[in-house]
């Protein structure tokens, strides 16, 4: 899944490169991390500044480390100054700040130098959140490398496990989350023979599943300050006071039925021809470039557990880009709309 990690600046100490085995191991780890790691840095810039200085003596690592620092995949958290001062008794400021940041709840793992691990243990911090370059190949973090070819079933999972293991890692540090489900709108307003717009029997499952993603996102780094977007087909059969409910009016009612605050919500309707004819799967996309595919609609939850569905990562390809483009939209509700 998506992993929030910190690179200890001490990993790039020039003396370590005297060992002929170290550089290949470091390069392999950095390359592996580019797939699904988000880099956590301290908000004061101590870690980044120290790494930058050390990489001047290790140009062979500079491109590999820079590949991790994609702007959309950088998260900054404050370092606990008291912890940093404690670690600074043994290690340089960058390593001390990295160790202090690793205690943050958003951080999964600190890829650390062996001496930094010793310092963390001496300071009484949780050593289980650290992993050395030597330990990485056999670690659970290596096994969690994102595989866009492999799907995993969620059928039968509890809702709690589904949110914790599948949704939370993907959305917790996102500024924007997009859900693409072409028939969510028909669940919300029923089929064409239902001018009253009463929801279908599956709407409650759709609503709960989409809201669960939204709720988890609001508990993450940005606390819901950003955009939560739903892209779906439009419908034209819903009547209100003898007139068809279309565009922003339809989007506003859809948002109201979802129960999501208009301060965060954006609803975009895309005509059916915008979707590929054979497109069946639904998607969850973040601004960090992660695309999570679902083999069925977002009516995911049954009474006690998740219904049968395969979940997988995929590339952010032309189909996703086209669906997320504002071109061809025919209804919009967001915080700038004034509604």
Kindly describe this structure:
By secondary structure, the protein is of the alpha/beta class. The chain has two domains: 3-143, Rossmann fold, CATH 3.40.50; 152-333, Endonuclease, Chain A (2-Layer Sandwich), CATH 3.30.870. Helices cover 34% and strands 18% of the residues.
Strand content: 15-25%
What CATH architecture label of the largest domain applies? 2-Layer Sandwich
Order of helices and strands: EHEHHEHHEHEHEHEHHEEEHEEEEHE
Shape: elongated
Largest sheet: 8 strands, mixed
CATH top level class name of the largest domain:
Alpha Beta
As an assembly, this protein is single chain
Structural class: alpha/beta
- Mean pLDDT, to the nearest integer, reads 89
Strand order of the largest sheet: 6-14-13-12-7-8-11-15
SSE layout:
Blueprint: E1 3-7, H1 22-33, E2 37-42, H2 46-55, H3 59-68, E3 74-77, H4 81-87, H5 93-101, E4 109-111, H6 114-122, E5 130-131, H7 140-143, E6 152-153, H8 159-171, E7 176-180, H9 184-189, H10 203-218, E8 227-232, E9 239-240, E10 243-244, H11 247-258, E11 265-270, E12 282-286, E13 291-294, E14 310-314, H12 318-324, E15 329-333
